[in-house]
């Protein structure tokens, strides 16, 4: 019985030394695309914690949408980081995220960034890998997956780490 004790102890030691992250994810899109992505994610990999979606509704004012995005980003800000995805670079949701980056970056000292050009594969990769990587590593990993179709808004806006 004592022969198994050190192995068990080492197992617990290794487990306790592993750092788990929970990077918040906010998806901004036109219309109901965000809800559609969330529905697909729920079907494929199950409901995800710390995952918010906001679609710009037809007829919704820019000020109203910007206010909702800012309030949501503030409410989910996390020490592990908040990663915002936008459907297209240059669209209203992406521009709203860019404005948020310009006004609030770095967000309360927490890691904060935005990737425009989201697709379902990229989103699911982010959701499934966010517990095993820190913010910078996750963002670098995601940008490498689809370098021709995604844009890092921090780079596009020439923001530099402080």
Pick out its properties.
162 residues; 15% strand; Rossmann fold; alpha/beta; kinase; single chain
Q: Could you explain how this protein is built, in words?
A:
The chain has helices spanning 4-17, 33-45, 62-76, 92-104, 120-129, 135-145, 153-156, and strands at residues 24-30, 51-56, 82-86, 112-116, 151-152. By secondary structure, the protein is α/β, with parallel strands linked by helices. It has one domain (20-156): Rossmann fold (3-Layer(aba) Sandwich), CATH 3.40.50. Helix 5 (120-129) packs antiparallel against helix 6 (135-145). The longest helix has 15 residues, at 62-76.
**Secondary structure tally, helices:** 7
Which structural class is indicated by helix and strand composition?
alpha/beta
- The total count of strands amounts to 5
Question: What is the class in the CATH system?
Answer: Alpha Beta
- Reported CATH architecture: 3-Layer(aba) Sandwich
Low-confidence stretches: 1-14
What spatial order of strands do you see in the largest sheet?
Answer: 2-1-3-4-5
Q: What does the main sheet amount to?
A: 5 strands, mixed
**How big is the Rg?**
18 Å
Mean pLDDT: 86
- Overall 3D geometry? globular
What are the secondary-structure elements, in order, as H or E?
HEHEHEHEHHEH
CATH H level, superfamily name: Phosphotransferase system, mannose-type IIA component
Query: Helical residue percent?
Result: 40-55%
What is the fold named in CATH at topology level? Rossmann fold
């Amino acid at each position: 019985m004592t022969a198994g004790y050190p192995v068990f102890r080492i197992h617990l030691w290794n487990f306790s030394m592993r750092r788990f992250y929970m990077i918040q994810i906010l998806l901004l899109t036109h219309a109901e695309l965000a809800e559609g992505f969330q529905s697909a994610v729920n079907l494929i990999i199950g409901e995800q914690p710390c995952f918010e979606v906001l679609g710009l509704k037809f007829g919704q004012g820019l000020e109203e949408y910007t206010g909702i995005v800012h309030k949501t980003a503030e409410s989910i800000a996390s020490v592990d980081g908040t990663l915002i995805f936008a459907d297209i670079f240059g669209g209203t949701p992406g521009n709203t995220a860019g404005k948020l980056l310009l006004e609030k970056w770095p967000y309360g000292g927490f890691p904060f960034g935005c990737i425009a050009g989201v697709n379902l594969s990229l989103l699911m990769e982010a959701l499934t890998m966010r517990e095993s990587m820190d913010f910078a590593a996750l963002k670098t990993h995601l940008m490498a997956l689809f370098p021709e179709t995604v844009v890092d808004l921090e780079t596009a806006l020439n923001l530099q780490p402080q």
